[in-house]
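Hi P.,

Sorry for the delay on this. The queue was packed all week, but I finally got your sequence through. Input first:
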Amino acid sequence: MERIFGGVPKRALGLLGLMIASLIIAPAIVNAYVLSVILITLYFAYVGQAWNLMMGYAGQLSLGHTLYVGLGAYTSAALFVHFGISPLIGLFVGMAIAVAAGALIGSMAFRFGIGGVYFALLTIAFAEFTRILFEHFDWVGAMGGFFLPVENRDSSDFLNLRGGPVMFYYVILFLCFAALGVNQWLLRSRLGYYWMAIREDQEAAQAVGINTFRYKMIAVMISAAMTALGGVFIAFYYNNLFPADAFGMHRSIELILAPIIGGMGTLFGPILGAFILTPLGEGLTILMESMGVKAAGVKQLFYGVILLVIIRFVPGGVWPLISKKLGIDKRMKGKSE
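Then the structure:
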């Protein structure tokens, strides 16, 4: 097969182009509900890419990643509500705070050789501590919630992220593909090869002179910044924030499911995983409601079943199987995608 653009077959590029074109014109051809489902799917595809950069590329497991979502969300929202600062400025403050939090966690862990499951537990502890802190932080509503003004929903004010679903849809669509481009660039850089070396064998990486502390810290901070940006988006889209949702453990699990199911350590895995998981979850909700069944936790149980099936039959995720069919079989495990 004739190949172009660094070994990517024309068929694969054609499918990618078709997907992009379909997403661009989606607001003109789907109803409001379907558009909202696609929007949330793109959100999980975006934050999944941010988490995948840290775990899939650098091998650092974080189970408290909503810490960065919440910090980005609350910081930008508070600056907007209390001081009238545009979220386009507030996002930089939120990202900076998230990066500082990531640097604190990383420095505590990596300086003392904390890794694997213990590092994951440390990330959970920080997320839970922050949740408890914000539940008693009256300046941002504490447990009662923090609410943004919802006027101007019929017009688009991009500078203040005030507008309707279509505006937010194109914002998250841009963020999703921008993250894809950034990840592709990072993977093809020296930094990406260092991350792969650390993930595969940290001791061997150290032996050849790679500063593992520095490059793991870089992975944590970049991932934190990207995730915080997703938090800014979700805060202004929903217009309300509650500590249990912003920092809750269940949100962290939702965040990481898409890259696990799609394929960790791959570029398109988090996107594919999100487009599998979110629509199926919504479909299940509609089915249960049509049957008059209101069983709490059914969606989470469904996600768990899917995860078990993927781990049992396709441990590498769905995307590697599809990539082989398309002729794109370069994976992160020992290769650059």
